[in-house]
Amino acid sequence: MSLNESETTDHCRIPSNGTYLALSQLMIGEFALGLPLNLSVLYIFIFRFRFWRNNSVFLFNIVVADLLLVVCLPIKAYHYQLGLRRSSNSTMCRSMLFMLFLNRGASIAFLITLTIDRYFNVVHLGRKNFVKALKKTPQISIVIWLLLLPLAVPTMLEDFECCNSLGRSDNNTARHTPVDTIREVVFFSQIIIPFIILVYCTVCIVNRLRRKTVGERTKLRRAVCVVMSVVVVFSLCFLPCAVARAVLLVVRQKVHWEPQEDRWVHQENLVVQVYDSLMVLSYIDCLLDPLVYCFCNSGFKDAYISTFCPKFLQKMLLKRDFGLGTTTVTTTTSGTRSTSLAAIKNETVAMVPVT
C-alpha cells in the first residue's frame, strides 16, 4: 500500500483541514443563533405561554431537546479546529455521542407523537384520540425520555473508533460486535421509521384537506403547504446524513476486503467528509423548530412577537394569520401584564403537524 499504516487506521484525524475548519465555523454560527433563539422560546413557553395550560407539553420537550443539541456544538467545533473528528478522551467522546443520540431521538419522538395527534384530529375526526389524552399528561413526556435512554445507552458501552460503529482495529481488521450492530440499528431506525410514519400521516392529512369543502380555499392551500414543509425540513435535516452513513459503511467494507486498493481509502476520506458535513447541516433543526411552533400555534406566535419584536413589527406581524385560520381574541396574563392572544377557531390549525 502506498499509504502508511497510520494513515489507513487513524480515522480520528480529520481528512481535510479546510473542510473541517469551515464546518467548525458553521457550528459556531449555529450555536450563536440557536442558543439565544431557543432560550427565548423556552422563556415564552414557561413564563408567557404557560405551556402546561395550552396542551403544548410536547412542544416544550422539543425545545429542551434542541437546547441539549446546542450545548454540544461548541465542543464539536473545538475538536474540529484541533484537527480531530472527536475528543481524544474516551469518556468525552462517549458522552457527546450519547447526548447527540438522546436529543435527536427526543426531537423526532415528540415530532412523530404530535404528527400522529394531528393525523387523528384531521383524518379520523370524531374518533377517540389517545394521543390527545396523553399530551395533557406531563408524566407521559418523562416516560418518553426514559424510553429513549436504552436506545442511547449502546453509545456508552464499548470503546469505538472515532465515535463511529463498525470501525477497524489497529491491524486494519474488521471489528464488528453486537454493540456496534445495535448502535447502527438505532441510528437508522431513529430516522427511517419516523420518516415513514411522517410521510403516511402527511399524505393522509393533505388528502383530507383537499376533500374538505368548508373554509376558504386560500387558507386551506396554505395549511397544505405548512404540512408539506414539515416533511421537507425532516428530509433536509435527517435523511441526507442517514444516506451518507449507509454509503460510508459500504465504503469501509470495501476498504477492509480490498486493502490493496488505495482508491477505496481515498473514497472513504471523501465520504467521511460528506457524512460529517451533512451531520453538521442536520443541526440547523434547532433553528427551524421555532418557526414551525409559530405555524402550529398562533398563541405562541403572538406571545413571542409581542415580547421580543419591536412595536412597528408587532402591528404588522400580529395582523397576519399565515394561513392558520380565522381567529378570535382571548387574553392570557403573565404577572401584571396582559397580552391579547389568538385562539384558533378554525379546524385548519388542528391539521398542521409540528416539528
Walkthrough of the structure:
Helix content is 70%, strand content 5%. It contains 14 helices and two strands, in the order H-H-H-H-H-H-H-H-H-H-H-H-H-H-E-E. It starts with a helix and ends in an 11-residue tail after the last strand. Mean pLDDT is 75; it is low at 1-10, 168-174 and 325-355. It is globular. It has 355 residues and is mainly alpha-helical. Strand 1 and strand 2 (337-344) form a beta hairpin. Helix 10 runs antiparallel to helix 11 (262-282). The protein has a two-stranded antiparallel sheet with strand order 1-2. The longest helix has 34 residues, at 90-123.
Q: What's the count of strands?
A: 2
- Morphology: globular
Strand content: under 5%
Task: Report low-confidence residues grouped into runs of 5 or more.
Answer: 1-10, 168-174, 325-355
Average the pLDDT over all residues and give the rounded result.
Answer: 75
Distance between the termini: 48 Å
Radius of gyration: 23 Å
